[in-house]
Amino acid sequence: MEDKYILAEWMNNDLPKEELDQLKLDPDYSIYNSIREHAAELNTRDFDEDSLLNKIKLRKNDTGKVIQMAQNWFFRVVALILISLGVFMVYQENTNVVEFAKKGAKSTFLLPDQSEITLNSDSELKYKNRNWDNNRTLHLTGEAYFKVAKGKTFEVNTTLGKVTVLGTQFNVKARNKRFDVVCFEGRVQVNHNDTTIILTQGEKVSFENNDLIIQKKTNATIPSWLENELAFEQEQLKNIIEEIERQYNISIGYDPKSANQLFTGKIPTNNISVALEIIATTYQLQPIKISDLQYELIKMNEI
C-alpha cells in the first residue's frame, strides 16, 4: 500500500528528494518512468459543467418523448380495436343467415324465436339473426312451411309477393311466375302487387302471371310435400316437371309444346316410376329412362 502512495506522489512531482533517490534505485523505475512519459502525452478535455447539465436536460426531454410515443401507440391500438369491433358489429348486423335445401332433400331448422321452418327441395331462406325479436323478416326463394312462434310481426318476402303474420302455421311457394300461400292455423296477410288478402285457417290463394287464379278453402292440415306428395291445382306441365326434377334431383327432357292442359292432382316424391307414369298417362306421353339421373317424356306417336 505504501508503494502505491509513493508512486502517486512521484507522478504528481510531490515526492521528497530522499524518497525520490530511493525510488530511482528500484529495478522497475525505468518502467515507471516510461509510463509517466506516455501519460503526459495524453490530452483530456476540460470539465464543462454547463455542457454536462444541458446534456442531462436533453436526455430528460428525450425520455419524455419516448413515453409520449408509447402513449400514442397505446391509444392507436385501442382505437384500432374499437374500430374493428364496430366494423364487426355492423357486419354482423347486415350479414344474412342463409338456410338451404338442395335438390332431392328437405331441411328443417329453428329461428332465434324457436319458430320452425321446413324448406322444400331447392329452396333458400335468408334472414338477419341480430335483433331478430324486433325484426322478424325473411326472404324466401322456393317453398317453405312455417310454424311461427308468437311475437312481433313475422314477414316472409318473395319476388312475387309478401306474407305477414303474428303467430301461425302456413306454407309459401314462389316459383317462376306462380305464388301460392296456404294458411293452416291463425291468420296471414298476403300482398301481391296491389292486391291484399287476409287468409284464415283452411284457406289458400294462388297468383300466376300477376292474376288471382285460386282463392278457396282446403281441408289440408299440413303441406302435402311433408307427407311425400306433391299437390298441384291448375298447374302447368312445365312447373310440374321442374318440381319433380327438384324432388328427385334428376333431369327430365320433354317437349314444352306437348300439352297445354293444366294439371290437378297428387304426385309421390318417393317413387319416380309412379310419378312419371301419372304425368305420362295424363298427357299421353311415354317415360323413357336414359340413366339413373336422366329421363325423357316423348309423345306416344313418336315411339
TrEMBL record:
Question: GO molecular function terms here?
Answer: sigma factor antagonist activity
**Ranges of residues in domain Protein FecR C-terminal:** 230-286
Q: Which InterPro entries match?
A: FecR, FecR_C, Ferrdict_sens_TM
Keywords of this protein's UniProt record, alphabetized? Answer: Membrane, Transmembrane, Transmembrane helix
Among its keywords, does the record have Transmembrane helix?
yes
Q: Which residues cross the membrane?
A: 73-91
Q: Where is the FecR protein domain?
A: 102-189
PANTHER family listed in its UniProt record:
PERIPLASMIC SIGNAL SENSOR AND SIGMA FACTOR ACTIVATOR FECR-RELATED (PTHR30273), PROTEIN FECR (PTHR30273:SF2)
What is this protein's name? Answer: DUF4974 domain-containing protein
Which organism was this protein described from?
A: Flavobacterium profundi
